[in-house]
Amino acid sequence: MKQLRNIWLLTVKDLKLFASDRGALFFAILFPILFIVLFNYMMTGVMGEDTRLEINIATQEPAGGISYQLLAAMETKDDATLKPGEPKIIWLKDYEQAKQDVENKKLSGFIAFPKDFSEAVMIGYGTSLEVIFNPNNTQATAALEGVAQSIASELGAAQVVNDAVISLLVEKDLLSPGTAGDLGQSIRALLTRQATTSDVMITFSTQTAGEVKAENPANFVVPGYLVMFVFFTAAFSASQLVKERQNHTLERILSSSANRNAVLGGVFCGTAAKSLIQITIFWAVGILVFKMDMGVSPLAVILISILMIMVSSAFGVMLATMVKTERSASSIGVITSLILAPLGGCWWPLFITPKWMQFIAKITPHAWATNGFNKLLVFGSDFDSVVPEMLVLLGFAIVFGLIAILRFKTDAE
Amino acid sequence: MGEAFLAVKDIYKSFNGQKAVNGVSFTIDKGEIFGLLGPNGAGKTTVIRILSTVLAADTGDATVGGYSLRKNPAEVRDLVGVCPQDLALYEDLSALDNLIFFGQLEGLNGREAKAQAMSHLALMGLTERAKGKISKFSGGMKRRINLAIALMGNSKLLFLDEPTVGIDPQSRNNIFETIRGLRDKGMTILYTTHYMEEANRLCDRIAIMDGGKFVAMDTPQGLKRQIGDPDKVTLEDIFLKLTGRSLRD
Q1: In angstroms, what separates the C-alpha of B47 from chain A's closest C-alpha?
Q2: What local confidence, expressed as pLDDT, does residue A187 receive?
Q3: Residues 6+ apart with CB under 8 A from A259
Q4: Distance CA A233, CA A16 (A)
Q5: B92 and A248 in contact by Cβ < 8 A?
């Protein structure tokens, strides 16, 4: 009981020192938040942003043809009026230049109205839309073909209606076969005029299958930098114990009622308390500012956070027992943090890295922590799926803690 | 001879094969100020570290108030207060916070620790600076706080390891008066110093240590008498005679 009280006193003392050190507060809390804001901004769009499909259309007809009227009606004049998922229609004024651009891979492809488009529509003998594309860009090609078919079927439908009406009038003796051709041309001209003055020559419908939305980059960025900076702070806490040894306060503490285990426990709990404050602030900023979603199991997120605090604190204490000077503690803290963070997937998602890198990452606690957070916050996994990560983190905490206990016993001598 | 509050018997301690303490035995009576003199590296601080349970002796034992260092280290720690040679303070905390923290580690509750801290600050003439950060204090003020921390708790035996190094005469005088006042209240004190005059003024008995051993132990007058007329001989004379004139690291 006495030693538990001593652990508490040592923890409170560490927190007082932390609170009185403006530099430490900046690097432990404000600096990471600035980092998170910056990288969250940079990562916006990298992870699943909804890029709008662009459909390029040109015409080979001379000016004044029907295709000009159609293109004028179809062209997107204001991007702001586009609905989500609706493609942007771009009118390419120079057919030859557009063709050249496709050849030079500056353009993925385009649809072109033929030279005789107006004549073919007016007379009704039929024509073809040309789709010119870069064969390597299959997505754009498919989209262009789809749009070309839509245009063809719209015009084809108008042709069918026209022919059906004229046939019906002839059949009912309301129109003589001799004048049917003239009437057909007049109706076609009327329908075409109607089509070219309408805004809905071709309509696009967008359907969402399931709940698909752009990934919030904060769901990856916040946990990654949270893991990195919690380890960073813990590694720096190692220098606190070294400082205590150098300025003889450790000796003074050891000559009081606090025994070695209480001192070790106090350093561990002091570091853990600082990490807890950090994590609480990071999660609060993530949820309130970046609208992070805690996934289907917030409990698992909390448990992984706590385990990470334990691992990083034990790592900090272990480091403290291995170094002799404050400078070496700080240097090793910086070096280990800067190596383990990218290796462990704090700077970029591990799932986008090569297999060999993912394999090496497994030697770091960072990788297990970020992997657990990614599973929960990016892929929507449940509690059970992150149990292996939790167990490995617990294992790291035990190993680091045991090394610290064994080394501190002999080190104090 | 009074009642021995501290009894040290045949303590040995080596570091990397080099003997730092080489068979030291002595006793200090209750309410006595015992001076431990010696050149640099003589082993004085190692003796204090062993007696305050920070270091374990290779062989030998000591009792403090009847409790064995080896068998009852926790009880020994409750009885001793240490003022280390170096300033063992948290520079970023206030004087009051330093005193309260170490007082609580000595077993005082929050209220007791604060009351005792204020009392010790008054004793050291630092009441006005109670809430000031240690980093803003002068060397003399830090020394006084270093001593005040050693007084926190219910210690019966004080180890004062060169408590007056590098301070002005006023601060030194304040510390002397405090130490005498403590002795008058029955505190037992082990005092190490390089200042012979200090030892002469303060200590009831003095041991001179060199190479990890005691080379002499007596009252200041008794030591001086060993080489001549105590009114003409100084402690420095006997110190140099016993420990030599060669420079030490």
Answers
A1: 13
A2: 65
A3: A3, A6, B74
A4: 16
A5: no
Token readout for B53 is 């349970």
Whether residue A17 and residue B92 make contact (CB cut-off 8 A), yes or no, is: yes
Domains and CATH numbers, chain A: 2-47+221-411 (no CATH), 54-197 (3.40.1710)
Q: How many whole angstroms separate alpha carbon A199 and alpha carbon B111?
A: 83
Cβ within 8 Å, pair B101-A6: no
Q: Which of B77, B101, B133 sits opposite A255 (nearest CB)?
A: B77
**Which pLDDT value is given to residue A197?**
54
Neighbours of A220 (CB within 10 A): 25
Nearest by CB to B54, which of A249, A255, A257? A255
Cα separations in angstroms, A77 against A56, A91, A329: 13, 10, 62
Q: In angstroms, rounded to a whole number, what is the distance separating the alpha carbons of residues A356 and A361?
A: 9
| Token code pair at residue B62 | 């000591």
Cβ of B88 within 8 Å of Cβ of A248? The answer is yes
The two three-digit tokens of residue A83, written as one number: 């609905």
Q: B174-206: per-residue pLDDT in tens?
A: 888 888 888 898 899 999 988 888 888 889 999
CA atoms within 13 A on the CB side of A190: 8
Poorest-confidence range of A24-28, A177-181, B24-28, B184-188? A177-181
What is the spatial order of strands in the sheet that B213-218 belongs to? B80-83, B157-161, B188-193, B33-37, B205-210, B213-218
Is residue A200 classed exposed, middle or buried when 0-12, 13-18 and 19+ CB atoms within 10 A define those classes?
A: exposed
Strand extents, DSSP E, A73-232? 88-92, 109-113, 130-133
User: Contact A141/A135 with Cβ under 8 angstroms?
Assistant: yes
Interface test with B, best of A256, A259, A261 (most B CBs within 10 A): A256
**Where do the H-state alpha helices sit in A247-324?**
249-254, 260-288, 298-322
CATH 3.40.50.300 fits B4-243, yes or no: yes
Reported confidence tier of residue A210, pLDDT bands at 50, 70, 90: very low
pLDDT tens-digit map of B92-106 = 999 999 999 999 999
Q: Say which of B49, B93, B107 has its CB closest to residue A16.
A: B93
Cβ burial, residue A178 (10 Å; 0-12/13-18/19+): exposed
A385 vs B: CB within 8 A: no
